[in-house]
Amino acid sequence: xxxxxxxxxxxxxxxxxxxxxxxxxxxxxxxxxxxxxxxxxxxxxxxxxxxxxxxxxxxxxxxxxxxxxxxxxxxxxxxxxxxxxxxxxxxxxxxxxxxxxxxxxxxxxxxxxxxxxxxxxxxxxxxxxxxxxxxxxxxxxxxxxxxxxxxxxxxxxxxxxxxxxxxxxxxxxxxxxxxxxxxxxxxxxxxxxxxxxxxxxxxxxxxxxxxxxxxxxxxxxxxxxxxxxxxxxxxxxxxxxxxxxxxxxxxxxxxxxxxxxxxxxxxxxxxxxxxxxxxxxxxxxxxxxxxxxxxxxxxxxxxxxxxxxxxxxxxxxxxxxxxxxxxxxxxxxxxxxxxxxxxxxxxxxxxxxxxxxxxxxxxxxxxxxxxxxxxxxxxxxxxxxxxxxxxxxxxxxxxxxxxxxxxxxxxxxxxxxxxxxxxxxxxxxxxxxxxxxxxxxxxxxxxxxxxxxxxxxxxxxxxxxxxxxxxxxxxxxxxxxxxxxxxxxxxxxxxxxxxxxxxxxxxxxxxxxxxxxxxxxxxxxxxxxxxxxxxxxxxxxxxxxxxxxxxxxxxxxxxxxxxxxxxxxxxxxxxxxxxxxxxxxxxxxxxxxxxxxxxxxxxxxxxxxxxxxxxxxxxxxxxxxxxxxxxxxxxxxxxxxxxxxxxxxxxxxxxxxxxxxxxxx
Length: 665
Known about the structure:
The protein is mainly beta.
């Protein structure tokens, strides 16, 4: 009995020890050592040679020292030296130091600013030292004025990142095209800029996407902008609250202190890329045997003259120009000549000469197709050989049935659909120009009760579109239609007939749509001669869903499908219906765009109306945030320490819910 009691106590002690060990293991499993918090502190600037804000500097080498190992991210994009340097400076890191070697000769009595933006980061965690700039002067004082603002794309009011913004003290228009900037900066990811180290005076401000890094607008492909009003830098003292906190929730004291503001601080430049004006033959190609295409760099007022060199001058072809005459396709009709591997011709067209004027120019072209006639014949022979092999295989199996090859037909694409919008157009498209069509072989029917009855219609070519036609009828909502084409209803220029076809389509009910009325307050101010104020309905991706002119201050949109839309105005200065860019040489700005500040939610069978004054909101604050491709309002990214703490909380929550207690009982 005594032994049994001793054995029971020993067993009990063993169970307690095992349980205690299990408890320790269970607790330990909640989390593992994490090595301490992440470093989220940016590098600290300790000092430099020469010192910050030094005067009478004559050395071209600047050494900056920090409290930890650092590196520079995207130096060529982010770091800007002002005044601008024609010889690019050499910028490198060495441990905890940045060494900047200025290659240009230093100008006398000039303030120099090396603007690093957020390019300086620590070596381990890449924490940026934001808005860091270093300043010195070769004279006896430092120019301390600065101006700031924003650069937006004129076509859509999106911020333009990484574009130069510069000041000229020379106020002539020619300074932008002949002289480098006096002071310069670069926009950040949100399009903001600050130009530092400015002396008192009057300036003109420009934005430039400087492709060749000469700080001069001398290429048509460079994005640009300018302000008409002069920029006069100044300062202003404002009394602002300064709050001292005991902790994150408790305020210690609030003091009102004077704060110096540098003005102007709200410059807005609307940037655009000019339409190229230098006209030349950009490309000539012959995609297939029967056609060739000429592509010009800019639109033209006339078509080129074609002089055939190895085929008869009276050989006919069909010309297919686009509306601006910069892409022109020629469909050759005579198979005798377009089967040649090379088409030789001389073309005369209007091109820009060395003086910048349009004058006739003649080029000789040798056009070879991507697939020659011999290649076509080779492929046809190979295909016939394969068909013969298949026939022999069938004969060996006792199958003497001859496979009849389908006759070639003219490809036709019919529009329509099971549910068409009441204002939609039924289109018919072809792969080649039509030689003819037979009106008696075209039939349109409408379903009345259970029968289809004849319906009047018009079939015609779409204006300026050689290969596209449209079917016009007296369309009725909720009615079902059928468009029937008999065999050979259409015939292409190479003799191929179309096959019989039947396409059914139906129009939506009127209560499936909504309407929208926009009343533009101040529309009478958009009154330039020949201009039209265009109201546009666009989707979130800025695709234009509908466009209509504003008449007497009102724009009406009918038959809009239920969806989320946005509204904008295009001040169409030349009345051509599309947005046009500007031209610096003529001091012509891009056509203005205005955005209504919120979405319009369209529902079925609703009528909406809105009053809008496009001048009520500054242009840089008009575009709805959900439309912006670069959203400044996006949430702050969580720090690594916050992410780790959140992961630990999730693990702890999962374990406390019974996932892995491991208490050992």
